[in-house]
C-alpha cells in the first residue's frame, strides 16, 4: 500500500534553540525525511536561530551530522546535498536586540511563517515579545511550543496568558509528540471508522481499561530536569492523558481541531480526583548494569517517582463503573506502550452445564502503540478435536506493518507529521490552552498531596515490572496487570 504524500505550501520555519538536543535529534532529521518524501518544496527556508555565533555553513555542517547520526542517512546521500541549501542560521539574543533585524530581513513575504520554540519555557515570553515588536510575526504566523507547558495550573495559565498577548489561540501549536504517533491517531480510526467497537465502548460492556507506557531507559543524563518533574508531570499530565482522552471521548461531530479537542476536554473535566489509596509511586533501584534512580538523579534524598500506577475514574454516563488503570515507568522490563480493553464476560454461558471445560473468558482488545504497532483481539473459539465442547481463547493478531506492507512499516516519526501539520495549519493533533489547564487542574491535587506527605516511593528493581504495591492495586479489584513484554 503506497502512502500518499501531499506537499505543503512554501514556508519559512524558524527554529529557536536550533543548536539544542531536540532540534538535532528530532526536528532537523524529521524535516530531512519529509523533504526526501517530496513533501517540502525546495524553495522552503529552515532558519536556525540560537545564541551561538556561527555561519550558515557551520549550521549546515552540524545539521548534516545530526541527519547522519539520528536519521540513519549515509554521509554521501545525494538528497543531503539537495536539502542543506534550505538551511541557514541567524545568531540571536532571545533577551536582547541582537539578530532580530537580520531574522526579519530573511523572512519572505509570501511564504507561511512558523516559529518553533525549541527552548526553555522561561524564554517563550522573550521570544514572543521580540517577534511581535520587531514585526516579524503577524496574525498569520504560527508558533510551536514544546512540553513542559508549565509545571502546574498556575504556571500553565501564566504561559497561556503571556502567549495570548501576542498570538491568537489558532496560531499556537502546543506539541504533545504522542499525538503525532501513527497508532495514537489510529485509536480514533479504530473507534470512529468501524461500527464494530463503538456500540460496545461503554461501561455496560467494558470491564476495565489498562494504559501502559513502559520504558527501559532511566533518567541518567537528564536527572536534574527529571527530578523536578517525576512521572506524573513528565508522562501522565500530557501523554497518558491524551491516550486516555482518545479512548474515552465521545465521537466528535467531525474530525476537526476544535470538535476533537472539545470532546477531549470534556473527558479531562470529568476525571474524578484520585485518592491516595488508588495511586502507587515507585523508584528504580540499582542493578549490576547501572545506578539506581537516586544516583541517576544526583539527588540522594529524592522522593520523585520514576514509576506511577493509578486507578482513574471518569464521572460520566458512558464510563460510570469502568476503571481506567494507568501505569508508566522508567527502567522497566521492556519498552512497550499499549492500551488493553477488557470486555465483560458474556452475561450467560450456554456451555457451563454441558460437561464442558474451559468457560468463556472475557474478550480483550489490545492496541499496541509501540513497538510492533498493531491490534490483537482475543476471542473464544471451540478447541479443535472430538469429545465435547471445549473452549479456547485465541488471538486475532494484526501487526500493521504486515497488513499494510513495507510502506506501512515506514511510518513517519511523530515530529515529522506534527511539523507538517503546523505548516498546513491543522491543529487537530495539538493541545488547546484550556485542555492543558484542565489536565493540570486534575494532576495538581495529586502532586500536592504527595508533596505534603512524608512518604517515599516504593522501590522496584531495574528491569522488573514495577513495584509490588502496583500489583496489589489491581489485586484489590480482582484484576491483574497485563504482562510488560516487548
Ligand atoms: C518525553 C518524556 O516527553 O517522552 C520522556 O519527557 C520520555 O521522559 C519520552 O522518555 C517518551 O517518548 P517515546 O516517544 O519514546 O515513547
Automatic annotation (TrEMBL):
Catalytic activity field: D-glucose 6-phosphate + NADP(+) = 6-phospho-D-glucono-1,5-lactone + NADPH + H(+)
Pfam families, A to Z: G6PD_C, G6PD_N
Active site per the UniProt annotation: 239
Keyword line: Carbohydrate metabolism, Glucose metabolism, NADP, Oxidoreductase
GO biological process: glucose metabolic process; pentose-phosphate shunt, oxidative branch
Domain Glucose-6-phosphate dehydrogenase NAD-binding: 14-186
Annotated coiled-coil segments of the chain: none
GO MF entries: glucose-6-phosphate dehydrogenase activity; NADP binding
Region (Disordered): 453-474
InterPro entries: G6P_DH, G6P_DH_AS, G6P_DH_C, G6P_DH_NAD-bd, NAD(P)-bd_dom_sf
Domain Glucose-6-phosphate dehydrogenase C-terminal: 188-482
PANTHER family on file: GLUCOSE-6-PHOSPHATE 1-DEHYDROGENASE, GLUCOSE-6-PHOSPHATE 1-DEHYDROGENASE G6PD
UniProt similarity note: Belongs to the glucose-6-phosphate dehydrogenase family.
HAMAP family given in the database record: G6PD
Function as written in the Swiss-Prot or TrEMBL entry: Catalyzes the oxidation of glucose 6-phosphate to 6-phosphogluconolactone.
Protein name as annotated: Glucose-6-phosphate 1-dehydrogenase
Species in which this protein is naturally found: Paracoccus amoyensis
